[in-house]
Amino acid sequence: MPRSRYASATAALVAVGVVLAGCGSKPAATSGGSAGVAQDPNAAFEVWTRSTEATAKVYGKIFADFSAKTGVRVDYKPVFADFDKQIQQRAASKDLPDLVVTDTGSLGVFTSQGLVGEVDKGSVAGGADIGERAWDNGKASDGRYYAIPFSTQAMVTLVRKDWREKLGKPVPRTWDELADLATAFTKDDPDGNGQADTYGMLVPGTTDRGYLGWWASSFVWQGGGDVVKQDGDKFTVAVDSAETVRSVEYLRKMFCDTKVVQPGALTTGTNDAHAFFETGKTGIYVTGPYMFGRFDKNLGKDKYEVIAAPKGPAGDTVLGEGENIYLMAGSPRADAQKQLAEYLISAEAQRAGMKGDPTPVVRLPVNSKVDVDAVYDDPRWTTTAKVYADSARPFPSVPNFQPFRQQFSETLNSLFATCGGDVEGDLGKLAGNLEEELRAQGMSK
């Protein structure tokens, strides 16, 4: 039976849609789209996070500390499998959770569907301690804020240091050196077992949620390409540019020519991918810093190193994203939403999230008062923070980037699977589809 908040849920969601369109009155500060919804301090306060079992334990402790300090009971539900599907099911039944912590990639979907309302960042206690770079994670294409940042991160390159040193190879600083190292890890028996059972590059190449496009994005930017580019307050398609073609051809060589990626890469999801690195099957993994704790335990901290991305023709740009706090529409607990959001960005909660074992839920803190070096005391995190500051960028801020990432992922997957396709031609066809998507979202130049 739906909770009482949804007696007028349809009206609430329509109101959020009006806000997103820039019309009507602005909702109450940090209301999460709950303006006009009858409030009930006795209603359950349901919180979701996109979490594995390990990270759920860290979140659970943070929520317990919050409850102890405020008296607000949190009905916590960690979700990993089919997170997006479950959110959509709850939206369809007009029974959304009150607050959600999930990745920045959900911002476009949540705003376009009216699942969250506008956030007045000036009214968020502690909001002034969050830098503008982090706040941008919660900013939509209309320049307004619909989420509060919780954690940031940058993609880094993990390399089997013991393999590299055994083969006498340098730390890769360029694309050519990266390709050479990946080939050596594949062909030169780096583990010394006499078997051809190692591979250079670990790729989570599934099209599920557009993961292949997510992994490839850093390489595309390093090559000077892009999927779409901002042009004033609109966007133009760039997926068929000469620079993007060059970047995709570089990646295709790994699959089709040197064959340095792990078997089954094009159906491998991120969860399944990790085991290839920690069990000694692959030697290079472009991923987030959230993997350090797991690999330290399952592989050994001394066996791998963390480096900035080797430079491509246009530099060393990498994907930088994170997790946001989303105040969901229709909540009868706007007070609790605000309290918990403000607690999560506090220095106390941010440090607690960074100390998660083996996996932190706060990777790089959004609170400027938290010292990364002091908390982690780990040069790998110092490297990650520097990469984020110097080289990281998010996906383009179209209202909903997911369709772009999904179609890009599917095109890459097809090109890498067949090996005989026409990169320039296929990206040209994709460009036409993406132009249609830009028009549908009202973002075409």
Rounded to the nearest angstrom, the radius of gyration is 22 Å
Q: Could you give the count of β-strands?
A: 13
Structural class: alpha/beta
Overall, the morphology is globular
CATH class of the largest domain reads Alpha Beta
The total count of helices amounts to: 17
Describe the 3D structure.
Belongs to the bacterial solute-binding protein 1 family. One of its GO terms (biological process) is maltose transport. Residues 1-21 form the signal peptide. This is Carbohydrate ABC transporter substrate-binding protein (CUT1 family). The chain has 445 residues and is an alpha/beta fold. It folds into two domains: 4-152 and 321-393, D-Maltodextrin-Binding Protein, domain 2 (3-Layer(aba) Sandwich); 156-320 and 398-440, D-Maltodextrin-Binding Protein, domain 2. 42% of the residues lie in helices and 14% in strands. Helix 2 links the parallel strand 1 (46-50) and strand 2. The chain is globular and about 65 Å long. It starts with 8 loop residues before the first helix and ends in a 5-residue tail after the last helix.
Question: Any descriptors?
Answer:
445 residues, alpha/beta, D-Maltodextrin-Binding Protein, domain 2, seven-stranded mixed β-sheet, 17 helices, Carbohydrate ABC transporter substrate-binding protein (CUT1 family), signal
